[in-house]
Design goal:
2 copies of one chain form a homodimer. By secondary structure, chain A is an alpha/beta fold. The first copy, chain A, contains 25 helices and 29 strands. Chain A folds into 4 domains: 297 residues, 3-Layer(aba) Sandwich (Rossmann fold), CATH 3.40.50; 163 residues, Succinyl-CoA synthetase domains (Rossmann fold); 71 residues, 2-Layer Sandwich (Dna Ligase, domain 1), CATH 3.30.1490; 113 residues, D-amino Acid Aminotransferase, Chain A, domain 1, CATH 3.30.470.20.
């Protein structure tokens, strides 16, 4: 369901200041009874020190929590930015109309019982959206928590959660209020606080992408966290998330990853993520790093907010505990990072300056007895090393070391530098509060465990990689004939055909320089024999009829035909499979590596290209990879290189192997084709036979659906 | 290096009471200077309220920390249980001798500069071990932290770490003091405390297995945590860990898992885990669950200490936040658990008792507004459901709910029951301290995130599975001829041959009922021709000579010989490959599924059996599985079922497939063979051709090394 929201929001963002920086907040359904939402919101506004005007609305009460209370929103002095609506669901339409009459800008509808609650609720939600659109009120919710803004000039706690308002640099938008609550609670307990928070429940009007878009321009928001269970509008999400992701780090937690989890999402929200929407691929394409774990997400957000992204994957580790040096290495490697040995000049400097027993390879073990100047030296050298992208410092606090001085040296060497730094301080926090404080205040994120720091650096390096990829350019081939393809497609569309014939497929592939086995389209045996003469035996004979969809199963394919007699036998065997059949005589390609490649359209987000090894590899091992079209050369090469059985392409155990550059080229051409001709719904090349000799690589069968 | 420790410890455990419950502790090298180890140990003994006598030893001082100080250990009143030695490494031998003269029972040698520090250090360590053995002193360390015992009657803090002594039920033995320190610190910060702690550094005498053995009989130790970087004596470890693992949960953190991490271990400890030691397999065999993450380990330990192991993998989830229900499902599934739908009668009871909008499938979403009685009902029903092995309760604390009452209902329904329960309480800990306390005190472990609880339940179910497996029985086949194999092996050993000939291999396989392709051993062409006549063409001709190890590469194998002429040609082509060669004429098996199976001996821990698909599957995909011999039928079946490409065995896409029971039988027979005849160092059946017809499945090539 696409909502009736302002269609301009993507290009001309509607500032959501009236929602996140309201000058006044009305609470319609305010209450003096402590355990009600209408009471709690007022209490939160009051406890948080909200800077604007607060107007409780209640039909009977004169004051609530000591505040003058209005009988109706119509009685409230004009210019209300935000009105919480906490009345019964069936009363919401009338309440909204009244809000419209008093020029309320945004309604946070906390009340539940809308689209999450069956057919009647859906109708009610549609009704309120119409009323709101007419009254020019933006709706937040319904069935939602609300927003919080920790800006000292605002301190708007328009929400009924329990989390204290603590100023920070991370803004959080969560589809599930519970998940959002736990995330901001965790950010608080990690000492980070948060900037703004929004949980918009059913998201009938204001969407998470719209909120992200607003935060993109909020200078104090350094990092955006989003929680997604379903995606109402993938196109809107892709457009906005890509734009926002270029400006500041966006981190996501996507739940319902497993089949069982996805079922639980349906039961929770009534919505499915949308089968076939490759959410992980979408996030990666937008430069959004996704997490499977709320705590990992929060721990990482703190580093993203305070540290530069690393330029690459190479981590140098400094440790004063050998055991944790090993743990840091394991963690980094498992997070996709590299632990390169240090260059000779760095090692020499370390050997000269550290204790003789110190390890200087990487990890650098300065030893438990290391003094502040040893950290200073080691970190200084690593900062200078051009082979290091980020630094992980392990510091267990020995009682015999001046730990605060070590902390100061770590800060002096690392804070505000261009390399990413994560510090692991292993200590009794009560005893070493100052040591921790010195580092935290410097902007270097502090972790309790090297495992955590390694995951965080892994996530940062992943975002860095996504950003690098987004700079890769799709360079279209010039030798393509788009017009030829257009006319094939138009003809088929005119005839309302969705599956293209062999001849049409051949024209399309030829027009985009995608190699295929030579073939001839024939109407009778004579033509088949003559085609075989031209092509040369052995050949393959296939039926070519829209009536026969599964050719092989129906007996419509004969492979390895060696002479005219076999060809005639094959022809006679399949001529009665369809009325007025046509036939394809095709060169029998010699055995090569069987490849599958293809593309399919995903509503709203373009085409996804697929690549893999055929046969058992795709069917048993699912050894296929996906990427959005169009493909840069690097992206195509990465696809070819990233299948699990890549060694087979390289020529496994003296076998022939395949020219991988040619395969990458085919993928690029294929991606160009579906990008130029978006009417193509599905395209499969299965199999392509690949060889060491690129000129022989060719598709042996193809299928195009429009 | 096997140490000079008491060889009886495995069967007749030497109680380590003198070490862990010392009546008196001397500190040789005690000091009045605050930042020294000799000072800190005294301070820790004093701060922790140690119940025994403390004797500082210092050549000059009269008192240290107010305690009467002795000039030498010889001056200390007799009967010292533990003497810390903190003097310079070269002074340790003389100090130990003095300790011997004053009947010290155990020396905790904190001093470094021994086997971790090169050749001189190794010599020094050997020297002190000799002195200690002669003086009947058990050595703990050297280069170590020491021990802690939190028993209220002992409170021995013989250690220089910073972690407070807090009583608990988890004992921790760590090779790396740093890792041990972080683990006990984390247990403390999670509110669990610990029972005993030991970090024995170079482990020259008292080993971690010996300590585990001691803790097995310590009633107050409910869970044992071990940290391993290297394994000095795998045999000792296996024997003890298996015994201890049957008595109480043993959890391990094995670091140096990645190649890079293993290199860092060498640089840290100077030791390698021992290439070829399948540590994960060993731990599993002993019923030890291993972790990759210190925090996960600690979080799990708390549940293992307080909850029964689940009987199976089936988890029921109760949640009052839909989003976290989804997260719990994802987490459980990714931890290897199952989320089965609930039976109709349970769902009916839930539908009748919960809010109408509650979800009753699994997760059970009682809704945020759920009252205490709803938790009581839901948990009560799940406790009764025979299809539920463990329960994960998510409770986010809504301000409008009486959270303490909910906590009390959770406790009433779940505490002390036979099903495993983990609670996730998502809250502001300052606001809901009582709620948390009510649950924690009941023995139900409390987590901040469903992700953590899911991992914990996964680990508990893994241990349960390991224990079930340990009850599986190896049922040896009776139709084997051990004597025949013995005589083949003896003959080869007498001739000092390590690679057995084809004929010997054939006798061995035949004696254990392992099917092989029919073959004849021949000395000349005439014999080959006659053998082929007997076996029937097509045949394979192989050279059989100890001179030709890599037969195929040397041209010593001709496949698919169809007639006598081809056989003669093959014979002539390979007869000069060796002096006095012999030949094998073997039935050419028809194409089937290529399997590899084998076994190899691992020093001290028996034989490991291997199974996988041959060719590209083993070489590119490494699709092989391992297990210790001998194999129960279930274990063999699991091996066959657990390869990634198992679908190929089932008959992929209408292809033939293989009889998997036959393959399991071959693995059992193979495991029986190497168990009966431990002289076999390596045995490879590569390939075995497998078919749907079990009677045709046979090994086509074999290699045995003794």
């Amino acid at each position: 369901m696409k909502n009736q929201r302002n269609p301009d929001i993507i290009n001309k963002p509607v500032a959501l200041d009236f929602l996140f920086k309201p000058k006044s907040v009305a609470v319609i359904g305010a209450s003096n009874r402590p355990l009600t939402i209408g009471h709690q919101i007022l209490r939160n506004l009051s406890d948080s020190g909200y800077k604007g005007a607060v107007y409780p609305v209640h039909p009977v009460e004169d004051t609530i929590l000591g505040l003058k209370t209005y009988k109706s929103i119509l009685d409230v002095p004009g210019g209300v930015d935000v009105a919480h609506i906490v009345v019964k669901n069936t009363l919401v339409p009338a309440t909204l109309e009244e809000c419209g009459r008093n020029f309320v800008k945004a309604a946070i509808i906390n009340t539940a019982g809308f689209s999450e609650a069956g057919a009647e609720g859906i109708a009610l939600e549609n009704k309120i959206i119409k009323i709101a659109a007419k009254a020019k009120i933006r709706v937040f919710g319904p069935n939602c928590q609300g927003i919080i803004n920790s800006d000292p000039g605002v301190r708007a706690y328009c929400n009924f959660t329990f989390t204290k308002l603590t100023r920070g640099a991370i803004s959080v938008a969560a589809q599930s209020g519970g998940v959002g609550e736990v995330i901001i609670q965790r950010l608080n307990s990690l000492g980070s606080g948060f900037r703004m928070y929004a949980s918009n429940g059913n998201a009938a009007d204001i969407s998470i992408p719209e909120i992200m878009n607003y935060w993109a321009d909020d200078e104090e928001t350094k990092v955006i966290i989003i929680h997604l269970e379903s995606l109402a509008d993938p196109e809107e999400f892709m457009e906005i998330a890509s734009r926002v992701g270029r400006k500041k780090p966006v981190l996501a937690i996507k739940t319902g990853r497993t089949a069982e989890g996805a079922r639980a999402v349906v039961s929770h929200t009534g919505r499915l993520m949308g089968s076939g929407i490759p959410i992980e691929l979408m996030l990666e394409k937008c430069g959004v790093v996704s997490f499977n774990d709320q705590d990992e997400l929060c721990q990482a957000a703190i580093a993203f907010a305070a540290q530069p992204l690393p330029k690459g994957k190479r981590v140098a580790i400094v440790t004063n505990t050998g055991g944790h040096g090993v743990i840091a290495v394991d963690g980094c490697v498992e997070a996709g990072l590299l632990i390169p040995p240090l260059p000779d000049n760095t090692r020499e400097a370390l050997q000269n300056g550290l204790f003789p027993e110190a390890a200087t390879r990487n990890p650098v073990d300065v030893l438990a007895t290391a003094r502040p100047e040893h950290y200073s030296l080691a970190l200084g050298e690593l900062m200078k090393d051009s082979g290091t992208d980020s630094i992980l410092v392990n510091f267990i606090t020995p009682f015999f070391v001046d730990c605060e001085s070590v902390a100061r040296e770590i800060v002096k060497a690392c804070a505000g530098k261009e390399k990413t730094v994560a510090a692991v301080i292993m200590t009794d926090k009560a005893q070493q509060g100052n040591t921790l404080q010195i580092i935290k205040e410097s902007g270097i994120p502090v972790y309790d465990f090297p495992e955590t720091a390694a995951k965080v650096l892994g996530a940062m390096s992943r975002m860095s990689e996504y950003r690098n990829r987004s700079r890769e350019v799709f360079a279209p081939f010039k030798d393509v004939d788009k017009t030829a393809v257009r006319s094939v497609i138009s003809a088929a569309l005119k005839e309302k055909r969705t599956i293209l014939g062999a001849r049409e497929c051949a024209i399309i592939l030829d027009s985009y320089g995608i190699p295929r086995a030579p073939s001839e389209n024939c109407g009778n045996l004579q033509e088949c024999l003559s085609a075989a003469g031209k092509i040369g035996f052995p050949v393959v004979l296939k039926i070519d009829s829209a009536d026969v969809v599964h050719k092989t199963e129906a007996g419509g394919v004969v492979l390895n035909i060696c002479d005219e007699k076999e060809l005639a036998a094959g022809f006679n065997g399949m001529k009665s499979l369809a009325s007025r059949p046509r036939f394809l005589v095709q060169k029998q390609l010699p055995a090569g590596i069987e490849i599958i490649a293809g593309a399919h359209a995903v509503a709203g987000v373009g085409h996804v290209v697929m690549f893999g090894l055929g046969g058992v590899y795709v069917e048993v091992l699912k050894d296929v990879v996906f990427q959005f079209a169009p493909l840069s050369r690097q992206a195509a090469q990465r696809m070819v290189a990233s299948i699990k059985c890549h060694a087979i392409l390289e020529g496994f155990r003296g076998k022939e192997g395949a020219d991988t550059e040619k395969l990458a080229e085919i993928l690029i051409r294929l991606s160009q084709l579906v990008t130029d001709i978006p009417e193509i719904a599905e395209l499969d090349l299965n199999p392509i036979f690949a060889y060491r000799d690129p000129s022989r690589t060719a598709a042996a069968d193809m299928r195009i659906k429009i």
